[in-house]
Amino acid sequence: MRVVFDTNVLVSALVFPGGRGEEALQRILEERDELLVSPPILDELLGVLSRKFARDAEALARTAVFLGDMATLVKPGRRLRVLADEPDNRILECAVAGRAEAIVTGDRAMLALGEYRGTRVLALADYLGESGR
Q1: How far is CA 23 from CA 2, 10, 27, 72, 100, in A?
Q2: What whole-number distance in Å separates Cα of residue 124 and Cα of residue 106?
Q3: How many Å apart are CA 38 and CA 16, to the nearest integer?
Q4: Per-residue confidence of the chain (133 residues) as pLDDT tens digits?
Q5: Domain encompassing residue 37
Q6: What is the spatial distance between Cα 121 and Cα 62, in angstroms, rounded to a whole number?
Q7: Helix 57-70 crosses helix 39-53 at what angle (to 10 degrees)?
Q8: pTM for this structure?
Q9: How many domains is the chain partitioned into structurally?
Q10: Where residue 72 sits, what CATH number does that domain have?
Q11: Helices and strands (H and E) in the chain: how many
Q12: Is 70 exposed, middle or buried (0-12, 13-18, 19+ CB in 10 A)?
């Protein structure tokens, strides 16, 4: 399954070992699913890791390389204005451009969509419950 993780899922996977975020990332590492990322998602992730978790330039570079090696980079061609929170729109853009089957998020506004242009919007617990797919 082609998936886009929102920034909070990625932060959870990278900062809090042993949690559900890490479990989701493990599905990508095991090549059970394909993770899609875009430059704006990577920029937001690295910014959050720097500001909120005091990651230095070297740690940020390692994170960028790690994600670059395991994810498929998507470069959306269109800007969307569907949700009030602009970073959420960047997630939708990546999903549309990459033809993702699912977006994995904890964001209530995004979850309220249920689906967007054929892409299901799933809570992390629901995504992990689909591991038999």
Answers
A1: 16, 11, 7, 19, 19
A2: 7
A3: 23
A4: 999 999 999 999 999 999 999 999 999 999 999 999 999 999 999 999 999 999 999 999 999 999 999 999 999 999 999 999 999 999 999 999 999 999 999 999 999 999 999 999 999 999 999 644 4
A5: 2-129
A6: 29
A7: 150
A8: 0.93
A9: 1
A10: 3.40.50.1010
A11: 7, 6
A12: middle
Name the burial class of residue 114, with classes exposed (0-12), middle (13-18) and buried (19+) by CB atoms within 10 angstroms of its CB. exposed
CA distance 28 to 22: 10
CA dihedral sign of residues 38, 44, 50, 55:
negative
List all residues 6 or more positions away from 3 whose beta carbon is below 8 Å from its beta carbon.
28, 33, 34, 35, 36, 100, 101, 102, 103, 104, 127
Amino acid in position 97: A
